[in-house]
Amino acid sequence: MHDIYTAIIQTGFNKSKRILNLGEEVILLKEPENNYDSEAISCVVPSVGKIGYVINNFRTLPIGCFSAGRIYDMFKVGIFAETKFIVNNISILKLNLESRNILNDIYKSSFSNLF
After folding, report:
1. Distance from C-alpha of 103 to C-alpha of 97, rounded to nearest angstrom
2. Which of 7, 44, 67, 104 could hold 27 in an S-S bridge, CB 3.0 to 4.6 Å?
3. Which CATH number does the domain housing residue 30 bear?
């Protein structure tokens, strides 16, 4: 299987402050209870908490990246991803497909302290 990339947009932080570093691993978690988007996937940095969301709008999604809707059914609860590129407040991540089985076995509440 080929590499799958997605992109997140940083929210709730000073846009000039870099939260992620290249090579840093993050956790992408489904948010089925999200009132604005039924396919919302949040991005969590364990040392910081929730920093943004996977982009689900084709107008703002970088070319070559999968939207939240395209990756939503690839995992049950969450998946690890590695930061590959950063441009302003958008970060491009490479999904770690092997991790989806690890996180599928962990109940989402295990991550509740990260929000």
Report:
1. 11
2. 44
3. 3.30.70
